[in-house]
């Protein structure tokens, strides 16, 4: 008998006018796995992750997380339950240091309000957690730097670390390799790989090579529908998946 999935999406729909961005999506993510969601541009991936995270209300369907129905919960309530998201476009506090960005994220995910910021610099445990995460990201030496002093890859790594700061049960990573060169992509791939078994991950990513290196399970979204889901080697051989990736992308599968 298999255990219940950590994230269970059933019949999720979202229409924009006459266009179905998500069209009856069913998707399950097991605890402890890296589950990758891939698909062509315009497939509905960003819409789906926004529905799961609570930034976008669904027209119909249900989202169950850790055994509880969260379909109508706002984003911050989902985060408090342990479901957090990093964004496709980096969102950092440019007026704060690297360390303070991490501390603010840990503070927020712990359920504390920003009105208590005047006391957060005295919270030793909070900054210990922030420093430990920065060390894991390879950013400990830059903890007092401003965001502008970080490379693009370092900023993306910091944002992933901020999503992990509250020790979530599931983190949604929305194209973490976007805009990276080969060296930065390799570093981010290694970081995501290090999360395996410690964090559950739903990874939305265009880099098919990285996906098939990282994922325990791959699901393919095309025109708002999941057309295949399973082990990477099985999905790679699926004819419907090959049809969805024409040209150079097809050659990668």
For the secondary structure, the number of strands is: 10
Beta strand %: 15-25%
Order of helices and strands: EEEHEEHEHHHHEHEHEEHHH
The CATH first-level class of one domain comes to Alpha Beta
The largest beta-sheet arranges its strands as 6-7-8-3-9-10
* Major β-sheet annotation: 6 strands, mixed
In the CATH hierarchy, what is the superfamily of one domain?
P-loop containing nucleotide triphosphate hydrolases
- For this entry, what is the oligomeric state of its chains? single chain
Helical content class: 25-40%
Ends apart, CA distance between termini? 32 Å
Q: Give the name of the CATH architecture of one domain.
A: 3-Layer(aba) Sandwich
Describe this structure in words.
The protein has a domain at 7-94 and 167-252: P-loop containing nucleotide triphosphate hydrolases (Rossmann fold), CATH 3.40.50. It has 253 residues and is an alpha/beta fold. 37% of the residues lie in helices and 24% in strands. The protein has helices at residues 45-53, 75-80, 98-109, 117-120, 124-137, 152-164, 182-193, 208-214, 232-236, 239-244, 248-252; strands at residues 7-16, 19-29, 34-38, 60-65, 68-69, 83-86, 170-174, 200-204, 217-222, 225-230. The protein contains 11 helices and 10 strands. The two termini are 32 Å apart. A hairpin with a 2-residue loop joins strand 4 (60-65) and strand 5. The strands form 2 sheets. Strands 6-7-8-3-9-10 form a 6-stranded mixed beta sheet, sandwiched between helices.
Blueprint (SSEs and pairs):
Blueprint: E1 7-16, E2 19-29, E3 34-38, H1 45-53, E4 60-65, E5 68-69, H2 75-80, E6 83-86, H3 98-109, H4 117-120, H5 124-137, H6 152-164, E7 170-174, H7 182-193, E8 200-204, H8 208-214, E9 217-222, E10 225-230, H9 232-236, H10 239-244, H11 248-252
Parallel strand pairs: 3-8, 3-9, 6-7, 7-8
Antiparallel strand pairs: 1-2, 1-4, 4-5, 9-10
């Amino acid at each position: 008998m298999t255990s219940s999935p950590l994230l269970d999406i059933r019949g999720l729909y979202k229409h924009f006018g006459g266009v179905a961005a998500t069209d009856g999506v069913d998707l399950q993510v097991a605890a402890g796995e890296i589950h990758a969601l891939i698909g062509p541009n315009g497939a509905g991936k960003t819409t789906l992750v926004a529905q799961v995270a609570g930034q976008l209300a669904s027209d119909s369907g249900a989202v169950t997380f850790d055994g509880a129905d969260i379909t109508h919960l706002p984003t911050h309530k989902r985060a408090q339950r342990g479901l957090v998201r990093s964004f496709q476009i980096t969102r950092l506090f440019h007026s704060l240091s690297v360390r303070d960005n991490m501390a603010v994220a840990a503070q927020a995910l712990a359920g504390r309000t920003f009105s208590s910021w005047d006391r957060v610099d005295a919270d030793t445990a909070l900054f210990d957690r922030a420093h430990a995460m920065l060390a894991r990201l390879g950013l400990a030496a830059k903890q007092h730097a401003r965001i502008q002093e970080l490379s693009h890859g370092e900023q993306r790594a910091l944002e992933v670390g901020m999503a992990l700061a509250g020790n979530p049960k599931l983190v949604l990573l929305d194209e973490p390799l976007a805009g990276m060169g080969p060296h930065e992509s390799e570093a981010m791939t290694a970081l995501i790989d290090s999360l395996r078994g410690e964090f559950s991950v739903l990874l939305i990513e265009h880099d098919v090579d990285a996906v098939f290196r990282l994922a325990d399970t791959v699901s393919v979204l095309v025109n708002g529908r999941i057309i295949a889901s399973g082990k990477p080697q099985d999905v790679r051989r699926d004819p419907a998946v090959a049809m969805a990736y024409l040209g150079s992308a097809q050659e990668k599968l």
